[in-house]
Amino acid sequence: MASSPEPLHRPKYSAMLQDTEKPIESLDLDVVLFQGRIGEECLEGKASGADNIAMLSALLLAYSVEQIFSLKEEDFQQPEIFLWFGIPLGLAAGSGLASVLILAFLAIKIRRLAGRSWCQFGRDVDAALLERKYGDREILQSALRPFTQNNSVGEVRFHAREWYYHPDNKTSAMHGLTLFQAGFFMFGIEVLCVTILLVARIIDAWANTFKMTMALLTVVPLLLAFGALLVTGSLHDLA
Question: Are the C-beta atoms of 96 and 57 separated by less than 8 Å?
Answer without folding.
Answer: yes
